[in-house]
Amino acid sequence: MKHGLYPKLALDGMRKNRRLYLPYLLTCGGMVMMFYILAYLVSSDSSSLLPYQSALGIILNLGCGVIAVFAAIFLFYTNSFLMRRRKKEFGLYNILGMDKRNLGRVIFWENLFTALIALAGGLAAGIAFSKLAELGLLNIMQMEVNYDLTLSPKAALLTLKVFGVIFLLIFLNALRQIRFTGTLALLRSETEGEKPPKANWLLGVLGAVILGAAYYIAVVVADPVSALMWFFIAVILVIAATYLLMIFGSVLLCRILQKNKGYYYKASHFVSLSSMTYRMKRNGAGLASVCILATMVLVMISSTACLYFGSEGAIQERYPREMNIEISFYQRKDLDKARLASLHQDLLDVAKGNGVEPFNLREYPIVSNVAYFVENKAELAGSEGHSFSPDAAAQVNRVQLMALSDYNAISGTNESLEDGEALIHSNRESYPYDDLTLITEEGKLSFRVREVSEGIPNRQAAMNIIPTVTLVVPDLSEASELLEQIGVEEIWYDWEFGFDTGLSPAEQISLCETLRKELRGSWKEERGLSSLILESREMERQDFYTLYGGLFYLGILLSIVFLFAAVLILYYKQISEGYEDRGRFDIMQKVGMNREEIRKSVNSQLLTVFFLPLLMAGVHLCFAFPMVQAMLKCFNLVNADLFIKTTALSFGVFALFYVIVYRITSNAYYHIVSGDRGDLR
């Protein structure tokens, strides 16, 4: 055979099957484009100049890895639709004299053309949209932008390598399928497995048990540290359970509807339900894939959007004043009021020396430690021989003590306390007990407690992944002495001092840099301070938007990729089933079924199963809500109302998008089964 025959057959096969190949090529190109854009952002000059650029680089590199792995899995999955459709054609070639080696050459050229078109188109689109993507990223992070269009050879080369390997593996898999499939099996590939399946109750029960376990974990695990530890286990369980339940449930649903004679023996239901019953195992797997992708999109976009739009609230809590100073001391006596008053005046003098008149001052000393909580008992760290086991992380809290006078001054209240009594506040979960006992190996210290919900300064609490429990005591010095008496060896003595300046953001940043130079070094050493930390709200604001904006942007890009995948699965599902059902509808048309009845039958079939993934994704999202909310607390995002709103909005937008996809795919299915040849290509 002439060597030019194989490329010609490959191009001719792609042209005749362009209804199948065009979406596949667009998806391949889209994956290439998304990967290049992320790789470009990793290596761009703008990203390298950002604060937190190392964290941003990790986020974007993680996105590249996710897209690469997902593209490999998903393109293998979608290529199986193409091969299933083309096997009959290859079987005919085999009968006409082509051996498996010649068929392999046709497949080689088809995959080569697919790879070239996808890589060329995807890279071209990626280069064209990379600057737009960079501008979007910088805008989300509230950074200044430049409009110079650049090409990243490093990103392009990495893209070619990754997707070159993926397309090579797809080609080898296609060769394997042809090599080990007989001629008759190739010819019958479109009607394989047409036996009425039975509902496997073992799969159903197993899926229900696994899903119940996943939901139990998601609902019961409330603290952030445990949520981080259990999240991926819950995700794996949900994925496995979804596939088992979708395969079992879809078959069972068809069986139940068939037994309902009033429903089954109608023109609009009979043909469609009979067709679905034969392929429900395969159909269930496809629906499960769409459900998992939908859940991933909803969880990812709602959580990252909540983080981003809640950034300002987190910034205000983390940095309550424009300038925030934290000073640590070596011992308890350093918290003496006279010493703190001297430091107070020294800091004001330094600020005034730089032309600033501080106002809206806030200051308070705190004493803190770490404790392992079991109900109303807290075992303090720092005693001899004490250590926390790794599995105790979920019960570890930071415990800080502050004076009642400072609490009243900050909160504007007039609370009073008796001996042995304290006010208590937990920054993440309410405290349900009437007393609290601090325990060491040498003794214990007990308080009767009253919970308060407001007025507790949470600047340090906002920095920590572990929760913070604050005890407001009548006398801080006396309480600190009692801690020392019961054997707590490691106690942290800190003083918080903050003020506003009324300066512009740029002037605040400049002032912060100047004050850092003056206060560190000799100034700190002369006053015998253990440490001094000075933070400016405006200087740190960019770090927040870099981190949270990077996560939000990655969430958007990955959501787009997963939406591509969900749409293509739905499209190929409808197209492949349309070709399978066309013969049945041809027969029904010959015995009197008209176009209107075909349309009703198509709508019946699609509505029976099409919205199951959306419904189940909504259920998954509801049960995932508590766990995701707990993980967001690690980022100091405790605004539940904001998370509810972003989640509800995300689901609403996705549902609207899903309805649009339903309309498009149902029309494609209808045109095939109704014999409307004008729309086949």
The main β sheet shows up as:
7 strands, mixed, barrel
Helix coverage percent of residues?
A: 55-70%
Work out the radius of gyration: 32 Å
Largest beta sheet: strand ordering: 2-3-6-7-5-8-4
Short overview:
By secondary structure, the chain is an alpha+beta fold. It is built from 22 helices and 10 strands.
Key terms for this structure?
alpha+beta, elongated, single chain, disordered C terminus, 11% strand, 22 helices, 10 strands, 681 residues
Tell me what you see in this structure.
With 681 residues, the chain is an alpha+beta fold. Helix content is 66%, strand content 11%. It contains 22 helices and ten strands. The protein has helices spanning 5-16, 18-43, 45-48, 53-95, 100-140, 153-179, 183-187, 201-220, 224-259, 261-264, 267-278, 280-309, 311-318, 337-353, 404-411, 476-485, 505-519, 522-526, 537-590, 595-609, 612-632, 640-673, and strands at 323-329, 359-374, 377-380, 396-403, 421-426, 435-439, 444-451, 468-473, 492-500, 531-536. It has a seven-stranded mixed beta barrel with strand order 2-3-6-7-5-8-4. Strand 6 and strand 7 (444-451) form a beta hairpin. The longest helix has 54 residues, at 537-590. It is elongated, with a radius of gyration of 32 Å. It starts with a helix and ends in an 8-residue tail after the last helix.
